Amino acid sequence: MGSESLILVMGVTGAGKSYFINQLKPNSVTEGHSLVSQTKTCKLVQMKIGACTVAAVDTPGFDDDEDSDAVVLSKITRFLTTQYLLSISLKGIILLHDISSTRFSGSEKRYLNTFRQICGEHAFANVALVTTMWASVDKSIGLRREEELQIGPWADLISKGSYTFQYNGTPDMAQTIAVQMMAKDDVVLQIQEELKIGHCKLESTSAGAKLAAQLEKQLEERRKIIQDLNARLAVEKRSRNPGEKRNINQRLAAQREKQLRQIRARDELRAKIGEETEKAIEEVDNNKKRKREKWKSRLQIFAAALGPVIALTVNLILPLAGVKVG
Ligand SMILES: Nc1nc2c(ncn2[C@@H]2O[C@H](COP(=O)(O)OP(=O)(O)OP(=O)(O)O)[C@@H](O)[C@H]2O)c(=O)[nH]1
Ligand SMILES: [Mg+2]
């Protein structure tokens, strides 16, 4: 096992990803205290697990806005592409699920579908399905929900080798889960394989295609709503009803704002992430040569190439790469 292995921690907003990482290494990331998503970018946290040095990756979760799914997928994919192109080993993914939540929500379903397509079936054996927040639920209710997950949404993952854990919230159990993951062979995920073929766009991958189709449908619906509102505004202009006109104008502004966000999210899915990442790595490499700098590790290039995606975590990565930061 090298000193450059990564473990990804994934799950929807509020599943307990940042909490889990803080149990592995106290106070390393910010936990959320509201329903709004807290972690907006991938964050790398270096830690010792047994004799190995590992980096656990805190990832952003899917929110309730469907257009944010595309943005989150793009951020996670940029991270995974850089990791893959620099041959940094990935041990697997810890997928967290809040057992105290009463239903398997729409965003949870979308997340799991995208998750499956990010991984691909061959990688399911490198997935730990971890239920959290057991202290917030009656044990028998929690066990019933877990069984429903195992025979329902998680069944295909488990049949292909994913394993389950009931996480009790302690540092010890977080360590146990991470140690088991470190014992796995390295894995290459489906989306990493897909993106290396012909420099394809994110929308051409299995995970991206599904989200692109959903976004196209929403954009079409949004266009119709805006058309209707414009038609109503034209009528109101003739009837000189200022109250109704203001009302329609406000609704138009809100719909246009949503449309703009969806268009930006759609653009994220058109990005050729493989090609962009290769260019970023090349640029870092050229800079390095120009300045005659010596790099101690691929992780240093990793941090520099990812730049804006994980800019705030450079301080965490450089020590992992064996470089002291001030
Ligand atoms: N007691 C207990 N609290 C937890 C546990 N997991 C998470 N929490 C709390 O639940 C809240 C949400 O957890 P986070 O770890 O921030 O959730 P997240 O998955 O990182 O959410 P995003 O960053 O928004 O995607 C925080 O207040 C945590 O302290 C757990 O296993 N036990
Ligand atoms: Mg978080």
What's this model, at a glance?
With about 325 residues, the protein is an alpha/beta fold.
What does this molecule look like?
With 326 residues, the protein is an alpha/beta fold. The protein has 2 domains: 192 residues, Rossmann fold, CATH 3.40.50; 69 residues. 54% of the residues lie in helices and 12% in strands. It has 12 helices and 6 strands. A 6-stranded mixed sheet has the order 2-3-1-4-5-6, with helices on both faces. Helix 3 packs antiparallel against helix 8. The C terminus is likely disordered. The chain binds guanosine-5'-triphosphate and magnesium ion. Guanosine-5'-triphosphate binds next to helix 1. Guanosine-5'-triphosphate (GTP) binds next to helix 1.
Physical arrangement of strands within the biggest beta sheet: 2-3-1-4-5-6
Helical content (DSSP H or I, runs of 4+):
40-55%
**What's the multimeric state?**
single chain
Q: Give the CA-based shape.
A: globular
Strand fraction band?
5-15%
List the helices and strands and how they pair.
Blueprint: E1 5-10, H1 17-24, E2 43-49, E3 52-58, H2 66-85, E4 90-98, H3 106-119, E5 127-132, H4 139-151, H5 155-159, E6 163-166, H6 171-182, H7 190-196, H8 206-239, H9 242-270, H10 273-290, H11 298-306, H12 314-320
Parallel strand pairs: 1-3, 1-4, 4-5, 5-6
Antiparallel strand pairs: 2-3
Helix pairs in contact: 1-6, 2-3, 2-8, 2-9, 2-10, 3-8, 8-9, 10-11, 11-12
Guanosine-5'-triphosphate binds at residues 11, 13-19, 31-33, 37-39, 60-61, 132-133, 135, 167, 169.
